[in-house]
Amino acid sequence: MIINGKEFELKLHGETFHCALDVTMNFIGGKWKSVIIWYLRKDVKRFGELKKLVPDITEKMLSLTLRQLEADGLVERSVFAEVPPRVEYKLSAQGKSLLPLVEEMASWGRRKVKEEGEMREVNRKKIVKKKTISA
Q1: Where are the beta strands (DSSP E) in 8-83?
Q2: 3-class SS of residue 28
Q3: What DSSP designation does 43 have?
Q4: Looking at the domain 31-115, which fold is it?
Q5: Could you give the residue range(s) of every CATH 1.10.10.10 domain in the chain?
Q6: Which of 88, 73, 78 is nearest to 26 (CA)?
Q7: Least buried of 22, 63, 82, 135, by fewest C-beta within 10 Å?
């Protein structure tokens, strides 16, 4: 990173970054991190709720991404000793500090689609499993 003609490198948690944007993207980059932060911005969600909100993500990828966000201190995971166990996810204080950035990114995306694309309602069909009775 160049500031006033001087070159700097950024070090955080044993990693070297080229610029401040590189640091930020390390935490929210990738296909799913910012999307999950977006859906946790207003309230607590359970794993299944997040899976329904992001239908294209696999359970394995959702689990991995939530673990990464938790390890980075952006998401807090609460486990409740119930049967079956209940696990909830919410943004930490540090995760909430990203909301202005994530909201501006979403706003930019809405403007881009409005100018150059289209927005259509999607009606996902619910799959109803039939119960079978075995003799």
Answers
A1: 10-12, 15-17, 45-46, 75-80
A2: helix
A3: S
A4: Arc Repressor Mutant, subunit A (1.10.10)
A5: 31-115
A6: 73
A7: 135
C-alpha to C-alpha distance for 70 and 92, rounded to whole angstroms: 9
Question: Given the structure tokens 């991995």, which residue do they identify?
Answer: 64
pTM: 0.82
Determine the average pLDDT of the residues in 49-57: 94
DSSP result, 86-102 = EEEEEE-HHHHTTHHHH
Residue 22 and residue 94: Cα distance in Å, rounded? Answer: 17
Q: Distance between terminal CA atoms of the chain?
A: 71
What whole-number distance in Å separates Cα of residue 32 and Cα of residue 5? 36
The pLDDT of residue 63: 96
Q: If you write DSSP's letter for every residue of the chain in order, what string do you get? A: -EETTEE--EEETTEEESSHHHHHHHHH-SSSHHHHHHHTSSS-EEHHHHHHHSTTS-HHHHHHHHHHHHHTTSEEEEEE--SS-EEEEEE-HHHHTTHHHHHHHHHHHHHHHHHHS------PPPPPPPP----
